[in-house]
């Protein structure tokens, strides 16, 4: 198997899907001639041409609106929002159009649309190039939200997203683009949406997380293993729908859970997961449900401040250690 | 702000309480320390003083209902504008400091040389000053988690018997699993010796997944009642006595010894003095009062007998509180004569008469049954001449007064008829050894044999 970076896995996934299905098109700012600011669409323009790899104006509402229109007319668009921070101009199209089409047509039409967006901090992008936006969309019935953490999952989930009959928001963490490498099969495979994966098996404390924090959690698990604390790392992979069964199985085994995300704490994904555990798994708990998340502030520019706001490996280690001793 | 009022812990090893009567109704104004309800427990009936001033928002438990210690029973709304004069505002309501060091086993070794005041204040704080402090200590005693409570219920485990190793003494999952594993091993041994019993599960490593499903019951089902037999349901008092004594029997390596005491002089003095004493003091002159008097003197000489084992230390106690076992129709209760060392013979006799009367009337207060540092049991009242008592929790020794009988004994190489009494002592051998125990009993023997009555 080839070793690929996460962004290479995204590019491979797009190319393979475009080769497999002529209806798949890519559109967004600088995705064509330039190959994308993160090079996620590099080479697609050369291979598939300007009719299938479309450079758009800097107008996110237009990008998503165009994608919805083309999806309703039979294509399978993959729209790129250059930074997830700029997805908000398109939120009306996403929430009021894409997410509603299945329902307003009584199941007659889907909206087979993928919106890819790089998100997250850790690259000194400051307020407008660091945000985690996934929680905004969890509240919208009709959407699917996916956050892969590894090249294998990125490619497999992207293929599943392209083949899905309904809109999928596909958030790629910028910090994992080139830092995270992994083996990726060359043959066709799909990672189903809505299925979490236990990235590391452990006994004492479950860490439920997703995206870049999966790697921080694995680092924390290594550090804690030296202290005799065995950590199970559950990578949600999909946030909507999310895999309650896998989380329940893990929490029922360890009876202690830390939920970790880079997004700010208030009303984040962790709140939803914690509420589920509190409602459904109350008598499995041997300690308080614990959240590790960013402070409730925008991501600052100064590297020291960014590091102070965003949770790191040490925060997970501290939280798990406390909970293990509880 | 709404404050939850919880069922207080009225006495050691009391697990639940019954609301006898609500003294306030929803909407009623209640002042701080004003009685809110009458609580009936295994040991005592008591009024529950309201820890805060406010308005009764809701009564959560019906009259006559029995709930576990720590269960919320009422909600009081604190209203800052309703604070009466001279009362601190609600925000400034004094918070009971967590009595971290005053628990039975929680303290550090107190030196006898230490100044008196701190030790006294520590002991004073040990008796819960308010219901909220009692709640807090009760909650801490069985602090656990939802998982642990579910496992305890499924496997019928009294969590107070499970040593907690978690933060603040919490009973953790590991604690209860290892407890169950030990109990399972014991059950497996029983199963081996009784081939008809169902085989116990392999218990050395109970996997969490297996535990989360209701496993095979480790406690055997009660045997069916055969013809000619009858099942007597446990009263709360019976259950409490059983739990208390089982715990001691399992945890305290006790030893036993006895001396025989010539109490001829004491008997003669009592025969002479009893009518006058009764007339003068209004209470009967029993042998128990002078006996407690000399025990207290002997305890002062041998402070280890007034101490308690604390796992990694021994806790010496300057104050001497003597528990006195009182037989009731349906059980036994041990009220405490506090600061017995500060009383003379009359004071001891009056205190005893009061405690015994209230024990039989069922009107002891929680503080009346708490804090004993040593126990005296008048088993002679039942005609016993030798008994082997069980050391009470939190104490090092228990002394029995056996029946006084006339026997032929050798005095100065001649046979004489003397009044003899056996004095038996069971003691926690972790705290004290035979030599000190011997000196303690010899001191008692000598003091009784040469008893000098008050003029």
How are the SSEs placed, and which strands pair?
The complex is a heterodimer of chains A (326) and B (455).
Chain A: E1 2-5, H1 6-20, E2 24-28, H2 44-48, E3 53-55, H3 60-72, E4 76-80, H4 91-98, H5 101-104, E5 114-119, H6 134-138, E6 144-146, H7 151-163, E7 168-173, H8 176-179, E8 181-184, E9 197-200, E10 205-209, H9 213-225, E11 231-235, E12 238-240, H10 244-254, E13 257-264, H11 269-280, E14 290-294, H12 303-309, H13 313-325
Parallel strand pairs in A: 2-3, 2-4, 4-5, 5-7, 6-7, 10-11, 10-13, 13-14
Antiparallel strand pairs in A: 1-8, 6-12, 9-11
Helix pairs in contact in A: 1-7, 3-4, 9-13
Chain B: E1 2-6, E2 16-22, E3 29-30, E4 35-41, E5 45-49, E6 54-59, E7 66-68, E8 72-77, H1 116-126, H2 131-141, H3 146-154, H4 173-193, H5 208-212, H6 236-251, E9 254-262, H7 264-281, H8 288-301, E10 308-309, E11 314-315, E12 322-324, E13 326-328, E14 331-333, E15 336-337, H9 345-361, E16 374-377, E17 397-411, E18 414-428, H10 434-449
Parallel strand pairs in B: 12-16, 16-17
Antiparallel strand pairs in B: 1-8, 2-4, 2-7, 3-6, 4-5, 6-8, 9-18, 10-11, 12-15, 13-14, 17-18
Briefly say what this structure is.
The complex is a heterodimer of chains A (326) and B (455). Chain A has 326 residues and is of the alpha/beta class.
Architecture overview:
The N and C termini of chain A lie far apart (43 Å). Chain A has 13 helices and 14 strands. In chain A, helix 1 (6-20) runs parallel beside helix 7 and helix 3 packs parallel to helix 4. Chain A folds into 2 domains: 2-184, Thiamin diphosphate (ThDP)-binding fold, Pyr/PP domains (Rossmann fold), CATH 3.40.50.970; 197-325, Rossmann fold (3-Layer(aba) Sandwich), CATH 3.40.50. Chain A is 38% helix and 20% strand. By secondary structure, chain B is an alpha+beta fold. The A-B interface holds A 252-255, 282-287, 325-326 and B 145-150, 166-167, 170, 172-173, 208-209, 212.
């Amino acid at each position: 198997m080839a070793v690929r970076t996460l962004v290479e896995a995204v590019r491979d996934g797009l190319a393979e899907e475009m080769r497999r299905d002529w209806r798949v098109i890519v559109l967004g700012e600088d995705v064509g001639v330039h190959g994308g600011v993160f090079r996620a669409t590099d080479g697609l323009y050369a291979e598939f041409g300007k009719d299938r790899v479309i450079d758009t104006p800097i107008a996110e509402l237009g990008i998503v609106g165009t994608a919805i229109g083309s999806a309703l007319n039979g294509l399978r668009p993959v729209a790129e929002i250059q930074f997830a921070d700029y997805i908000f101009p398109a939120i009306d199209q996403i929430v009021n159009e894409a997410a509603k089409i299945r329902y307003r047509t009584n199941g007659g039409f889907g909206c087979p649309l993928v919106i890819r967006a790089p998100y997250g901090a850790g690259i000194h992008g400051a307020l407008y190039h660091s945000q985690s936006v996934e929680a905004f969309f969890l509240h919208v019935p009709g959407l699917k939200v996916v956050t892969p953490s590894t090249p294998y999952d990125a490619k497999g989930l992207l293929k599943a997203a392209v083949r899905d009959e309904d809109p999928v928001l596909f958030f790629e963490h910028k910090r994992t683009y080139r830092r995270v490498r992994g083996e990726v099969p060359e043959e066709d495979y799909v990672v189903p949406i809505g299925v979490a994966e236990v990235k590391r098996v452990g006994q004492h404390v479950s860490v439920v997380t997703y995206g870049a924090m999966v790697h921080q959690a694995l680092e924390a698990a290594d550090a804690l293993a030296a202290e005799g604390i065995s950590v199970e790392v559950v990578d949600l992979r999909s946030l909507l729908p999310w895999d309650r069964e896998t989380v329940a199985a893990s929490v029922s085994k360890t009876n202690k859970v830390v939920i970790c995300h880079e997004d700010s704490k208030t009303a984040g994904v962790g709140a939803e997961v914690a509420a589920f555990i509190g409602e459904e798994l109350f008598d499995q708990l041997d300690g308080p449900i614990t959240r590790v998340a960013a402070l409730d502030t925008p991501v600052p520019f100064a590297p020291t401040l960014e590091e102070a706001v965003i949770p790191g490996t040490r925060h997970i280690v501290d939280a798990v250690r406390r909970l293990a001793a509880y | 702000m709404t404050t939850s009022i919880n069922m207080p812990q009225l006495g050691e090893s009391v697990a639940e309480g019954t609301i006898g009567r609500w003294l306030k109704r929803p909407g009623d104004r209640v002042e701080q320390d004003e009685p809110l309800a009458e609580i009936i427990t295994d040991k005592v009936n008591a009024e529950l003083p309201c820890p805060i001033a406010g308005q009764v928002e809701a009564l959560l438990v019906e009259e006559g209902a029995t709930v576990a210690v720590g269960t919320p029973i009422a909600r009081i709304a604190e209203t800052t504008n309703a604070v009466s004069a001279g009362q601190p505002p609600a925000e400034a309501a004094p918070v009971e400091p967590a009595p971290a060091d005053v628990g039975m086993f929680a303290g550090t070794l107190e030196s006898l040389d230490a100044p008196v005041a701190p030790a006294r204040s520590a002991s004073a704080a040990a008796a819960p000053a308010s219901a909220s402090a009692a709640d807090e200590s009760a909650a801490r005693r069985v602090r656990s988690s939802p998982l642990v409570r579910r496992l305890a219920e499924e496997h019928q485990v009294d969590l107070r018997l499970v040593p907690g190793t978690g933060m603040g003494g919490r009973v953790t999952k590991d604690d209860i699993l290892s407890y169950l594993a030990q109990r399972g091993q014991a059950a497996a041994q029983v199963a081996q010796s009784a081939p008809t019993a169902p085989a116990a599960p392999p218990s050395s490593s109970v996997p969490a997944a297996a535990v989360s499903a209701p496993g095979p019951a480790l406690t055997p089902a009660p045997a069916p009642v055969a013809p000619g037999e009858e099942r007597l349901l446990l009263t709360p008092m019976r259950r409490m006595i059983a739990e208390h004594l089982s715990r001691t029997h399992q945890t305290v390596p006790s030893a036993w010894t006895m001396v025989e005491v010539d109490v001829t002089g004491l008997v003669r003095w009592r025969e002479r003095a009893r009518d006058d004493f009764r007339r003068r003091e209004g209470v009967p002159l029993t042998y128990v009062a002078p006996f407690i008097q000399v025990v207290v003197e002997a305890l002062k000489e041998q402070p280890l007998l007034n101490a308690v084992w604390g796992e990694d230390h021994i806790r010496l106690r300057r104050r001497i509180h003597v528990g006195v076992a009182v037989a009731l129709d349906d059980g036994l209760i041990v009220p405490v004569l506090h600061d017995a060392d500060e009383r003379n013979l009359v004071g001891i006799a009056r205190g005893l008469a009061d405690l015994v009367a209230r024990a039989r009337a069922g009107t002891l207060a929680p503080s009346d049954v708490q804090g004993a540092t040593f126990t005296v049991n008048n088993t002679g009242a039942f005609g016993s001449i030798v008994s082997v008592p069980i050391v009470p929790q939190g104490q090092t020794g228990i002394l029995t007064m056996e029946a006084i009988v006339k026997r032929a004994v050798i005095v100065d190489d001649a046979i004489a008829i003397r009044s003899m009494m056996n004095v038996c002592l069971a003691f926690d051998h972790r705290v004290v050894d035979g030599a000190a125990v011997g000196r303690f009993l010899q001191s008692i023997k000598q003091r009784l044999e040469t008893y000098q009555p008050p003029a």
